[in-house]
# Entry
Amino acid sequence: MKKLLGLLLIVILGISFCFGQTVTDPPDSQPAASNVRGARYPRITSDLRAIFQVKAPDAQKVQLQMGKVFDMVKGENGIWTYTTEPLVPGFHYYFLIIDGVTVSDPASESFFGWGKMSSGIEVPESGVSYYSLKNVPHGDVRQKWYFSSVTQAWRRCFVYCPPDYNNNLNKKYPVLYLQHGSGEDERGWSVQGKADIIMDNLIAEGKAVPMIIVMDQGYAIKHGAPAPVPGQQPAGPSAFEEVVIKDIIPFIDSNFRTLSDRDHRAMAGLSMGGMQTIQITMSNLDKFSHIGGFSGAGRFSGAGLDVNKDYNGVMADAAAFNKKVKLLWIGIGTAEPQNMYKAVNGFHLALTTAGIKHVYYESPGTDHEWLTWRRSLNEFAPLLFR
Amino acid sequence: MKKLLGLLLIVILGISFCFGQTVTDPPDSQPAASNVRGARYPRITSDLRAIFQVKAPDAQKVQLQMGKVFDMVKGENGIWTYTTEPLVPGFHYYFLIIDGVTVSDPASESFFGWGKMSSGIEVPESGVSYYSLKNVPHGDVRQKWYFSSVTQAWRRCFVYCPPDYNNNLNKKYPVLYLQHGSGEDERGWSVQGKADIIMDNLIAEGKAVPMIIVMDQGYAIKHGAPAPVPGQQPAGPSAFEEVVIKDIIPFIDSNFRTLSDRDHRAMAGLSMGGMQTIQITMSNLDKFSHIGGFSGAGRFSGAGLDVNKDYNGVMADAAAFNKKVKLLWIGIGTAEPQNMYKAVNGFHLALTTAGIKHVYYESPGTDHEWLTWRRSLNEFAPLLFR
# Structure
């Protein structure tokens, strides 16, 4: 009977190995790390081209959407293929388009981005290991449910606890509230961003202070507010700021061993999350001392910063602001769309003109994508709570 | 500038609301709870039919795969629709087939099942709340990385810690190792299974002892063993048993406050995970005292159980076995495929004939699906560690 069981297990285990065909794979290439277990495609070549493959004998047109849309080419056995130009390392969202229908690739892990479960491809970065799993003490990422007084609904957050959190039971920790971008959610920073791995590595090297990181969802509709009409813009402003102040911070401070004064509380975010961060922290400087905007500080409108009026004038007295805010950190990728680059760089220039102390970082060669934000976290976190 | 920021946020927030069209939704229906944020389809009617919708003006054929394959019907504006018969409540995997290509639905959350990121639909169960979020103390689910000595690779597990784990810092807890089924992974029990919510509710009602639950991945290839050839069966047996004994249990016992004797260690699993559980626990009765097989105890081969030979004869002396094993629990859904039902029910009958004490449970009207396993956990967990 053991044999029967063994055979059956082998058959069942086979499910995970049935992607693609038993043809020869292109030499000098390997499956992307972001593939599901056992999937041979997409593959990455040694010069960082990605090869995509879809079996679709009956489809009229199969396309790859990754930034732009590329037509895949139909070959033998109805297998469509596309090989990209060499890619920038890091994480890129992508979709397949099957006869005009945009879908995610069953061979890829799914990542919540663009408001839906997207495919993603991880392109390896040679000589860089700050976001690689290493033999160092590891913290954990905890899924927590809490009831929001503002939305009158259950919400979920993920909380990174540093490696020594479970050993130093009398120690209290500073907290970074870290927000995702538009169309993403509370999973973004730990899944696409590898925030836990980045922090484990920084802490192991003594480069960052052990801290708690709270990753929540930047969307919230106040209870009683009109529900958004599908296909239309939401009727009212997001209630996220209220959720942060009234729900999330009190929940975290009462459920984790936090240092709960403003000196030990930071907020940062990427893109939309960066804009939310600036908005929320500037309105609540009694609660936050360290502030980070990754590809989304200020706004993308291009209008100038008026330090006397904007953010209720909290920057009007630069000396007072500089004393109060321990860290204001602004970052942008040099390959981001020009309007975004100009907005963030312009914010940096305006802050400089106004005498507002801040750190400005440019991520070389990266777009409005997760590698910019992994780098941003890796640069930002070491400066916190010093 | 605040206005500009507000407007921009509204535009960005709009991404999550752009699914579907501004047409009238069918009355007496609501979006499935398993949809991504803001998606109007699939919808569930009050008599539990599911309505699927895909915009695909250029596709020749659009189908729904949910158990069987159903042809969707093309209507105005290239929108394809399909309304099911009333569905059994619980969680059902499904896929869309666009001109012959099986893909997941961008409007649904993704769930790792069938060896890929699948779509899933949650059909509400009237009058039942044991897997609903309630206002009770909540534990958490922790993502942990560990390095396996057996596979020589990093592995990930999820660990449920009960609500009082962070308050009773001197308390130690019993541990249940809980496995997913074939084609699934370590995410299955907390995402599809809602194991954390079930446990929070059971513990709040005093029906289950607070316990730690470890959810790991039931696939493992021993370091140095030939890598599986894609499209073929793996060359050797799974090394999962070795990983459980040599890696997972020692990791959990040294990183969590566990009661580490056999009396306080249980293992259970569903389908393939149930078969693995029986195999592993019977070979390691010095380590496990409580055993559960959900839709997968014994094997699906139909061959009779020989208590004198099977499992190295551990059941040959029924009295000794009954004294040693504190709980042997077997469950199956009455609507599961006949071969599965017969195998598990046959195992139950054979155990009865052999005088082996066990609990046998049938989930009324449910198939080889997650509702059977949510119910199984809800029945099984209260019997543990008493």
In short: The CA atoms of residues 304 and 350 of chain B lie 8 Å apart. The two ends of chain B are 63 Å apart (CA to CA).
